[in-house]
Design a protein that fits this description.
Length: 210
């Protein structure tokens, strides 16, 4: 099974191919299905989802760094939901399965169409995704929990910043692309850094009256 970075890259690749201005949940779902597919068919539980029938060019795949494309707010919300699912299951690393599981509650777009076509319910989808397995073995998660704490630094990479907030790195990159979070580029390099104290700018107070 390919990893979540591949799924995200394929989602961006699909969005650009279709001329979309941003990556939507539909593109993200296609990327995840492509990541778990073999020969253009994603077998999820008892369902064989034909990517060709969904208009996916499964033979082609993205090469090199993905182009800069913004994620829609709904796609960002899906990443956040997937991160919470990963945390609730004790996984150290979020993977494709967690994102697929996050789609269980979706009632719009491509996921809604799949539910109608295949008779999928939220529970049956989550059960099927659970049987796909996860990338990180229990021993790897235990080893990760024993790893020494990194020394706090003022400037963080997107991966480190995402870890600080407990969200996926693609969500963090979406904040940067949308301008919600300031970022700096290293002189002469592609790498970017985020000021630790700026992380609070993407946090909003919880209104418990709603």
């Amino acid at each position: 099974m390919r990893d979540l970075d591949f799924a995200a890259s394929f989602a961006i690749f699909t969005a650009k191919r279709l001329g979309a201005g941003e990556v939507t949940p539909d593109h993200l779902l296609l990327g995840c299905l492509r990541a778990v597919s073999r020969f253009g068919v994603a077998k999820v539980g008892s369902w064989n989802i034909d990517l060709e029938a969904l208009g996916v060019d499964w033979i082609r795949h993205p090469e090199g760094p993905p182009p800069k494309v913004a994620y829609s707010q709904n796609a960002v919300d899906l990443f956040d939901r997937a991160a919470r699912i990963a945390k609730s299951s004790g996984e150290a690393v979020m993977n494709v399965n967690h994102v697929l599981a996050a789609f269980a509650v979706e009632e719009q777009g491509l996921m809604a169409a799949l539910k109608r076509s295949y008779g999928i319910t939220s529970a049956s989808w989550r059960a099927a995704v659970a049987r796909l397995g996860v990338d990180a073995a229990p021993a790897a998660r235990i080893e990760s929990s024993r790893a020494p704490k990194r020394k706090s630094r003022e400037y963080l990479s997107p991966e480190e910043a995402a870890e600080e907030l407990g969200i996926h790195v693609q969500t963090m990159r979406a904040y940067v692309r949308s301008g919600r979070l300031p970022a700096f580029r290293l002189a002469g390099e592609r790498a970017i850094r985020i000021l630790r104290t700026d992380l609070k700018k993407v946090l909003e107070p919880l209104d418990i009256t709603k």
